[in-house]
Amino acid sequence: MAELTPREVVRELNRYIIGQDDAKRAVAIALRNRYRRSQLSPEMREEIYPKNILMVGPTGVGKTEIARRLAKLVDAPFIKVEATKFTEVGYVGRDVESIIRDLAENAFHMVKKEHAEKVKTRAQVLAEDRLVSLLVSAPKKNNNNPLDFLLGRKPEPETTPEENTEISRKRSEVREQLLRGELEEKELEIEVEEASPQLEVGGASISIGDMMGGMMPKKTKLRHVKVKEARQILIEEESSKLIDEDAVKEEAVRRCEQNGIIFLDEIDKIAAKSGQGHGPDVSREGVQRDILPIVEGSTVNTKYGPIRTDFMLFIGAGAFHVAKVTDLIPELQGRFPVHVNLKSLTKEDFVNILTKTDNAITRQYTALLEVDKVHLTFEEAALEEIAEIALRSNEEGEDIGARRLHAVFEELLEDVSFNAGG
């Protein structure tokens, strides 16, 4: 984050999103302010809160993409939620605190993946060793039970020196075959651990196995898989053993609190229309009041520990065609001090989307059809015409922004896509 100035953030966003400079500047400043805050004393850090952003503009102009690319740019935990999915407490629907629990889940998987990458080499060595053992002698169902000793069950007899020598020879042969890639399609039996059932109580997840004090033996099952699949399963198992789960949880919670980005889409749909205050509008206001504590700053219990929302960055977005920003309750308006308006796309914007972005739809279709040996090229005049058709369709029908290009391309290339590949 230290290396990214606001100008550099905007430059990176320009690789994927055309136009909307005001919105890009707003998120770039918000991101840089996070870095500035992190360099201050702990006392001062506690006093500085992020300035949440409200994006107003039609669908398909880049609101979600700006937030998603921003999070990816700095490896920040990110979640996009639609405000309409939530209902006020007491009604059937999703609880607003589930937003933070989902964000924590994303952060945990992100941090765990990073930690797994650090131990990957060691995990691969251990997994390869286990794979050799499985190929030399088939696995036996693990029936180890703490009560075996009390019940007088005897352990299996040890192997003789001659058997050990033979096993060692076989292991060397199998290891060489694995290195040459000769056994990738061979099927084998592998014993995998079954996840123990978990109960979620007040946002915290409790394993039933842990409730029994770990006395119950871990349940396992045998799976028939190919060597290449078994290798991946074993690498994941060995990585899990090498990773410090508590450290992962602590880091996930820290990242959620300090770097989390929550994108609240369709926020205009929970705004009560001007002059109305009954029926569905009462429920809409209830949802706003339930969202308010999360945006203001509160503590939410998750299975990874309590998480404070005080320093998360919230980005609200909506078209606000029917309702206005002023129709939101004043307390919620006050929590989104930065307002940016996103403009409808012009013909020039459509042409730039087709030619200048790293993920241009023209490149996507070219790559897809290349699989069937169809070489697709687009002339400049053709791209101009496609942009004109997309613009006219948005003007005559619903304005769905850049998503209109997908509809145009599907219709344009339907015959080519159908007949490609013979």
Give a description of the structure.
- By secondary structure, this protein is of the alpha/beta class.
- It has helices at 6-14, 21-38, 42-45, 63-73, 98-118, 120-136, 148-151, 161-179, 208-211, 227-242, 245-259, 280-296, 330-334, 347-355, 361-370, 380-396, 403-412, 414-419; strands at residues 53-56, 78-82, 187-193, 198-201, 204-207, 220-226, 261-265, 299-302, 305-308, 313-318, 338-341.
- The strands form four sheets. Strands 2-7-10-1-11 form a five-stranded parallel sheet, with helices on both faces. A two-stranded antiparallel ribbon has the order 3-6.
- Helix 2 packs parallel to helix 4 (63-73).
- The mean pLDDT is 85.
SSE diagram, text form:
Layout: H1 6-14, H2 21-38, H3 42-45, E1 53-56, H4 63-73, E2 78-82, H5 98-118, H6 120-136, H7 148-151, H8 161-179, E3 187-193, E4 198-201, E5 204-207, H9 208-211, E6 220-226, H10 227-242, H11 245-259, E7 261-265, H12 280-296, E8 299-302, E9 305-308, E10 313-318, H13 330-334, E11 338-341, H14 347-355, H15 361-370, H16 380-396, H17 403-412, H18 414-419
Helix pairs in contact: 1-2, 2-4, 5-11, 6-8, 6-10, 14-16, 16-17
